[in-house]
Design goal:
Number of helices: 5
Order of helices and strands: EHEHHEHEEH
Radius of gyration: 15 Å
Low-confidence stretches: 159-164
Largest sheet: 5 strands, parallel
Distance between the termini: 25 Å
Strand content: 5-15%
Helix content: 25-40%
Strand order of the largest sheet: 2-1-3-4-5
Structural class: alpha/beta
Oligomer: single chain
Mean pLDDT: 89
Shape: globular
Amino acid sequence: MRTENAIFISYRRDDSRWTIRAAGEKLAGHFGKETVFIDVEAIEGGHDFITAIDKALARSLALLVFIGDYWLVNKQGRCRLDDPEDIVRKEIATALERGLPVVPVLIDDARMPSPQDLPADLQALHRMNAVHLRHADFRADMESLIVQLGRDLKLPMASVPWLD
């Protein structure tokens, strides 16, 4: 069984920092640090970012897309996904093209984008059932996500005290 970088985390830094750090630590603590790919922790300085992302996606079993309030539209009101070079768009499109499971993770009150908000290469994202990760219910939401990932991806499940 292949577990290196099994879980690829896709996110936007400006609207999901607390969530990514906390969720990444919980996932790594449960499945192993080598199993979770978060760009800022995995890509060293001086390495080609796009190449590193592509290699990590090739080793991944699933993509978690963390969607916050500014995931679709930035603070200036521009749709980020309109840019074909948007890294989040590329990550999702690559995962969908490769047939990886894509799990939208809605942060707090964020909503799934509507089909008309998504470019053609991301249309399948709208059909993916989302999970919620709320600050107030973080522990229960993470427990549910960890159990789902362990079951669906057949990853070894370590014992984590707060899940027992």
